[in-house]
Amino acid sequence: MTNTAKILNFGRGNFAGQERNVADLDDGYARLSNMLIEAYSGADLTKRQFKVLLAILRKTYGWNKPMDRITDSQLSEITKLPVKRCNEAKLELVRMNIIKQQGGMFGPNKNISEWCIPQNEGSSPKMRDIPQNEGKSPKTRDKTSLKLGDCYPSKQGDTKDTITKEKRKDYSSENSGESSDQPENDLSVVKPDAAIQSGSKWGTAEDLTAAEWMFDMVKTIAPSARKPNFAGWANDIRLMRERDGRNHRDMCVLFRWACQDNFWSGNVLSPAKLRDKWTQLEINRNKQQAGVTAGKPKLDLTNTDWIYGVDL
């Protein structure tokens, strides 16, 4: 009789062909301080806001950058949320100062004392007493944005809530008295295509890029020019595009000409003024260009071709 043993395999099944999805630091990582992690954990954010926050952390700290240009479509790809919902949550985070915005750049705000969000129990009364969700909740899928209180307003002036109850006009540049679009409402509709928005004033990423280019042009003739409200500038550019039928290239070309012209350089310092004076600027530029290109022809005094055919 042979002494044999039958081996039964109760081990793991056959996982051949199955993809292993294991996180590895070699694939990249985001450096995040323990203080920020604890602050995020204690923040009473909605699920949507938290997902968008993590996506922004991934697109910034994940690339060792404090800020970066992050589109709503990029956030949507990471969070698996609709683009519109990503835009709403992003703007809410900006208003709460959890996320900083500089033009079209976004990034985490490490200065926790500037945050303006509700906290879990145990937080200071100053933070707990902040009114939240006075507007419609995102869960209702209403088209209006939230009113998030007035404390710690964003440096960019991102929402109407940061403006005092007194009617105060927010000038878009050194050309005082300029304004655009309709008056802002307390609850402004969040625009899904907006790369920047302040109340009812907004613009796409291309509008914002054109606005930033124009300000760089202004600084060439006025180095001390103060930073404008880019939401207002982008809004004026959007209006020129949508209502006047202009394109970004024509706007920038005419604006550059105005900045270099001896007379107009001191009078056109913003997109709003460009829009207001467009017809005059175009006429003057065309006249100037015609005067240069249509000068008198040079006379060749040695040419005697004119004499042919003349009977002497």
From TrEMBL:
Please report the name of this protein according to its UniProt entry: Replication protein from bacteriophage origin
Species of origin: Escherichia coli
Quote the biased-composition stretches of kind Polar residues, using this chain's numbering. Answer: 173-182
Where does the sequence pass through the membrane? none
Which InterPro entries does this chain map to?
Answer: Phage_lambda_VrpO_N, WH-like_DNA-bd_sf
Location of the Bacteriophage lambda Replication protein O N-terminal domain:
22-115
Q: Ranges of Basic and acidic residues compositional bias?
A: 126-145, 157-172
- Region (Disordered) residue spans: 116-194
Tell me the superkingdom of the source.
Bacteria
One GO BP annotation is: DNA replication
